[in-house]
Amino acid sequence: MTSGKFEQLERELLDAVAAASDLVSLDDVRVAALGKKGRVSELMKGLGALPPEERREFGQAVNGLKERVAEALARRKDALREAELSARLTSEQADITLPPRARGLSEGRIHPVAQVMDEITEIFADMGFAIAEGPDIETDYHNFTALNIPPEHPARQEHDTFYFNERADGSRAVLRTHTSPVQIRTMEQTEPPVRIIAPGRVYRCDSDQTHTPMFHQVEALVIDEETHMGHLKWALESFCKAFFEVDEVKMRFRASHFPFTEPSMEVDIGYAKVGDEIRIGEGDEWLEILGCGMVHPNVLRNVGYDPDKVQGFAFGVGIDRIAMLKYGMPDLRAFFGADLRWLRHYGFGVLDVPTLARGMSL
Question: What is the pTM of this model?
Answer without folding.
Answer: 0.66
